[in-house]
Amino acid sequence: MNQKVLIDRRKKTGAGFWARSEIFDIDGLNWHDISVYLFLCSASDENGQSCLGKEEIAAKCKISVGVVELSLKNLERKGLLEKTAENPSLRRLLF
Questions:
Q1: Separation of CA 29 from chain center
Q2: Cα-based distances in Å from 91 to 18, 57, 70, 85
Q3: Which of 47, 50, 62, 72 shows its CA 20 to 30 Å from the CA of 6?
Q4: What is the maximum span of the chain, computed from C-alpha positions, in angstroms?
Q5: In terms of DSSP bridges, do strands 92-94 and 51-52 run parallel, antiparallel, or are they unpaired?
Q6: DSSP H or E run through 93
């Protein structure tokens, strides 16, 4: 199985969002990683990008900021997300 899972780019409808089900089959991901990934999918725009702070991700996923940081590193390592920019003054990341 291809280990790279991308956000499904179908147009969002209503309050729903699209994410690829293969996320559940990738070795080395825990429930924190999957929760963060799904939240980023839900917060992405039509180009598949999200601009969020680690604190916001932690609050929405009900996990600590430290766990968010570990999950983001693991998702990057697995090729599931790419951090494209960081704005330290706003404490936000663009994925």
A1: 12
A2: 26, 12, 17, 11
A3: 62
A4: 40
A5: antiparallel
A6: strand 92-94
- Per-residue tokens: 10: 């179908």
Within 13 A of 73's CA, how many CA atoms are on the CB side? 6
Bridge partner residues of 90 (DSSP): none
Q: What is the pLDDT of residue 84?
A: 72
Among candidate residues 77, 20, 80, the one with its CA nearest the CA of residue 50: 80
The two beta strands, 85-87 and 51-52, are unpaired
Confidence label for 71 from pLDDT (cuts 50, 70 and 90): very high
Percent of the chain beyond pLDDT 70? 72
Task: Kindly report whether the global pTM for this prediction surpasses the value 0.90.
Answer: no
CA distance 4 to 22: 9
